[in-house]
Design goal:
The protein has 161 residues and is mainly alpha-helical. Helices cover 56% and strands 9% of the residues. It folds into three domains: 45 residues, no CATH class; 30 residues; 38 residues, no CATH class. A hairpin with a 2-residue loop joins β1 and β2. α2 crosses α3.
């Protein structure tokens, strides 16, 4: 059977969805020469998860955008943020500033370690798990309670079968 027909049949008849994950990943692979790194796929998943989009939109508007506006780094007009003086920067200057931002992010992560997740629940540590088979239940409980950096408060884990 031709691969198109295999994928078409899977998408249209056999795929069972509890969220948009499978078609988002397949779309990413189809639009990216058939391959993508996990973090590239994850970015597409986040972009299709309205709850994450709403959460970070709120963070931009109420926190980081406000701080950068108060420090006169950005301006906001009609819902659009603009870097003040962007047009005055050369390509080389822009790249150096991008590199400096990456350095600052890495320094922060190294300094704080897993504490950067305090008060946040990354999606990979979700406490509600759908369609979990009994075979993997203990492994998932172990991961969430011992490995996941944010479940240090003994939060209940809810399984939906």
């Amino acid at each position: 059977m031709h691969k198109y027909h295999v994928l078409f049949e899977y998408l249209s008849k056999r795929m069972r969805m509890s969220h948009v994950y499978q078609p988002v990943m397949i779309m990413k692979l189809l639009s990216n020469d058939g391959k993508a790194k996990a973090d590239e796929i994850a970015l597409d998943l986040v972009q299709n998860d309205l709850s994450q989009l709403e959460y970070y939109t709120e963070r931009v508007n109420q926190m980081v955008g406000k701080v950068l506006r108060n420090n006169q780094i950005v301006a906001k007009a009609e819902g659009v943020y603009q870097l003040i003086g962007f047009d005055e920067l050369s390509d080389d200057e822009r790249q150096k500033l991008i590199d400096l931002c990456a350095i600052k992010i890495n320094e922060y992560k190294e300094k704080r370690g897993m504490m950067i997740w305090d008060g946040k629940l990354p999606s990979f540590c979700s406490l509600t798990l759908f369609q979990t088979t009994h075979k993997y239940k203990n492994l998932i409980i172990h991961f969430i309670t011992r490995v996941c950096p944010v479940n240090n408060q003994g939060l209940p884990i809810k399984f939906i079968h």
